[in-house]
Amino acid sequence: MTAPLSHYFIYTGHNSYLTGNQLSSDCSDVPIIKALKRGVRVVELDLWPNSTKDDVDVLHGRSGINFLPLDLRGKMHTFLALVSRTLTAPVELIKCLKSIKEHAFSASEYPVVITLEDHLTPKLQAKVAQMVTQTFGKMLFRPESECLKEFPAPEDLKYKILISTKPPKEYLEAQTNKDKEKEKDSDDDVWGKEPTELTAEQEDEKTDSDASDNNQDDEDSDAFEPEVDSSRAPGYKSLIAIPGGKITGRLKEALKVEPDKVRRVSLSEQALEKATVSYGTDLVRFTQKNFLRIYPKGTRFNSSNYKPQIGWMHGAQMIAFNMQGYGRSLWLMQGMFRANGGCGYVKKPDFLMNVDANNERAKLPVKKRLRVKVYMGDGWHLDFKHTHFDTYSPPDFYTKVGIAGVPDDEIMKKTKIKEDNWTPVWDEEFTFPLIVPELALLRVEVHEYDMSEKDDFVGQTCLPVSELKQGIREVPLFDRKGEKLNSTRRLIRFDFV
Questions:
Q1: Burial degree of 424 (CB within 10 A; 0-12, 13-18, 19+)
Q2: Per the database record, which ranges form the C2 domain (predicted)?
Q3: Of 14, 119, 314, 447, which is the active-site residue?
Q4: Which whole-number Å values give the CA distances from 81 to 25, 77, 86, 169, 303, in the listed order?
Q5: Is residue 381 annotated as a catalytic residue, yes or no?
Q6: Among the options 7, 60, 314, 447, which is catalytic?
Q7: Is the CATH code 2.60.40.150 the one for domain 368-496?
Q8: Residues sharing a CB contact under 8 Å with residue 200, sequence separation 6 or more, in sequence order
């Protein structure tokens, strides 16, 4: 834990204050507390003026406008702003800050980063600075200079709170103008070639507007933001440990590594996939020193998530996930951060820290083979009612075992169905060749076969291959929400051959 902060994958939340979906669920400090107790190290707060404009609320302030056609956005700005401000009930910022202070280090002693999406006036920015300073006191990490040349190590930031947001608008304007001047001489395509294939999870993205790919996260957008007086927000600016910023021009320019400054850039999940086609090596090199944050597409109104491996393969430290959403993607995220003692920080593989890193993994040979022998399972009769799966007979369990990782490593296999047995014995063996074992996760799912309807989900776990210990192991299972089942366990043997 002694390398710079940018050398680690970090357990990152998205819209951390929402209790459910992105449109109408309540805003609360409760999901923030739950996330911190699970080991999440990056919490996101959206800051807006309250109804009387004299205090700061946390709420999801803009739902859906970036996904309208361009010609409709201007006409709908006012309407959607009003609607979106009433769909999610706000929570006071001070309440969130106090809860973060109380629970930040309940699961891990390593630093917590608060990313702020700021829609405030300079006066309210000053109030936020005062709140943050008074709430966290000595826990707050204040950078010694305006621009850090390198991030400190997690070991040096134990029990510290870091603020990450873009500087107040006036500090970016001069640099933005310089960027525009540089771009005039180049007519390169912003994103390069389109991906030739879509994964199953991306099929629903085919109708997304191209403009949505060019829009950055809300925190990197200027819509709804007030004009800023440069003399009114110096205290707020001094709190920023990890400066963020929007991409105003070509991505290749935004990914240039500056020798005397470190920063954070945010990309949507769609923008990342397009960027990897032409700028894969640039992404890796950028993340060796700077932060790259990936966030879910805005059409994930139900708080679903996306495939995290694409970001990890390219060195992205902050894969921002909706922790209040459930499903296989979140299971993978939970599995990754079971590594390193569950502290919320996982060291990036050496190949991603190589100065000359080239992210073409397809040409590499098999580096390791994992052999998995599934012996048996037990404990379901204690965690489920006897009629939970079948009313008149014991369940028919089978196991799915596979790898999540780089594309060439991904595979899923299945055992035979064991009929009418609460304590099934499969005694089946599977071998998985791994090109990039450093990013591989072992997936284990148990289902109950149903002849007439959809098979029932029974339990799951995801484990980092890099931390598997050889030999016969008792492996716990978790439910859909990632909660550990009380009694259910699996007996599995692991070998590297």
A1: buried
A2: 347-479
A3: 14
A4: 17, 6, 9, 20, 20
A5: no
A6: 60
A7: yes
A8: none
E-state strands within 188-307? 240-245, 264-268, 291-295
Confirm if 464 and 444 have CB atoms less than 8 A apart: no
Q: Give me the residues of the chain with pLDDT under 70, please.
A: 62-87, 169-234, 246, 248, 355-363
pLDDT of 360 reads 52
Told to judge if 447 belongs to the known catalytic residues of this protein, a careful annotator would answer: no
What's the pLDDT tens digit per position in 287-314?
999 999 999 998 999 999 999 999 999 9
Residue with tokens 């089978």: 398
How many residues does the structure list for the chain? 497
Q: Where are the domains of the chain?
A: 5-66+81-168+234-352, 368-496
CATH of domain 5-66+81-168+234-352: 3.20.20.190
Alpha helices in 288-440 (DSSP H): 309-313, 328-336, 380-383
- Block residue for tokens 């800023």: 228
pLDDT at res. 336: 98
Task: Look at residue 403 and give its three-state secondary structure.
Answer: strand
